[in-house]
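Sample intake — Trehalose 6-phosphate synthase
Collected from: Marihabitans asiaticum
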Amino acid sequence: MGGSPTRIRTKGCTSVDKQTTFDFVVAANRLPVDAVEREDGEVEWRRSPGGLVTAMDSVMRGRDGAWVGWAGTPGEAPAPFESEGMWLHPVPVSAEEIEHYYEGFSNDTLWPIYHDVIVPARFRRTWWHAYRRVNERFAEAVCEVAAKGATVWVHDYQLQLVPELVRERRPDVRIGWFNHIPFPPVELFAQLPWRAPLLRGLLGADYLGFQRTADAQNFVRACRSYLGATTKGDRVTLPAEDGQPTRTVRASAVPISIDVASLTELARSESVQQRAQEIRASLGDPKTLLLGVDRLDYTKGIRHRLKAYEELFEDGALSCPDVTLVQVATPSRERVDAYKRLRTQIETTVGRINGTYSTVGATAVHYLHQSYDRAEMAALYLAADVMLVTPLRDGMNLVAKEYVACRHDLGGALVLSEFTGAYHELSQAFICNPHDIEGLKQTIMRAITGDERTKRRMMSALRKRVTHNDVTRWANHFLANLEASPEKPA
Ligand code: GDG
């Protein structure tokens, strides 16, 4: 930390009355904490669940860095504060901006375009204006907390203009951006009326990281098509403009991972192992327990999964009480229309499957529209014979990696869609194309009935891959690439 601020203790955190700056700054849409109102009316900050937070947790540990993000409630932002060794700098987002910047442009325009247009994208100029405005506010906040020459790591599709906006204000800092979701093929990206400013926004960075090589290549192609940039391999060079020097930016794949050691340790704990047994017992000790864990999102292929599962009952291949499916569908983006529709469709389907195939005392689908703590998630992973990860498109999918990390017993089987980033590392899983319902049914049956020794060998191979590329390696890889950028001209 570049200064010695005066600290003021408040509930569960420390706030300061003096601005201070940091050598390492993370910017992401959300801060890694949620405000929770306690019974006594006091507000307490709790670490929020989710892939990005979990991944960055171990990166921030011991770094004494700052995190710039929205605190999750509309209107005025709380004063900056310290939490678990991290400096949290909240950015205000108004109720209207949440609707336009977050629910609108981020999740109803960009999200569908970046996920193969599984649902149609909606374009609204007012949403774009709010997106720009909020990105500017984030950039200003980053500049406020970044020390001279600091490293700034910007995250994800909500903040694609931030790299350029920070560079304009602070040419002294080094800027990296990582995309947690896919980057679309040029043919889909082309639909965006704001494709050129988005690309220019990203090219303000020194280094751009993507989940897959194909995502980085899509980005490079888009720069060629819509900015007239010259490209060579994973390098993009923008023509000099307004007296600005030519800049070359590298875009390559750095697949994200999880904290394997801490999750394995949790899954090995007595309490989690016992809880896994309790879960199975409370489900009536089925012969086969299938599990799905997803944010309730149309990209996750939950409908396709349920369709295959229902048909397997219809065909007589599966029946109660031998088999049950636990589907955790974590609430997500509940005010966006496409998510409301999806929820209705899924809940109708679950109702129909249960109405037709459950028996007294044995339920075909246990549908849980809730969030759980990490230990409960680990127990569910440990309890499940077959993990169903069937997205239609997914940047990585950390759930697949978490399942593997928890299976220290080499038990279980992973059914994995080829449309996830994880597929490129975990090809030893039971691979499926979720659009091919017949094929998906066969893959699920192979995962259920497969020879135990073969399945253990598969799990062992998967564990080697996941253990090798853990979250620390991911972060070091990203930061090493960032450190090596910009390259000195030859
Ligand atoms: C984006 C990209 C990419 C879920 N429910 C609960 C809970 N979770 C945790 C899981 C996992 C994370 O949330 C979800 O990560 P995913 O990777 O599966 O998916 P997205 O949320 O769509 O994440 C994705 C990721 O960013 C990282 O780059 O892999 O492709 O879309 O960690 O365990 N955690 C707890 N309770 C829940 O109820 N504690």
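Post-analysis note: Residues 49-52, 54, 180-181, 256, 293, 295, 330, 371-374, 377, 394-399, 402 surround GDP-alpha-D-glucose (CB under 6 Å).
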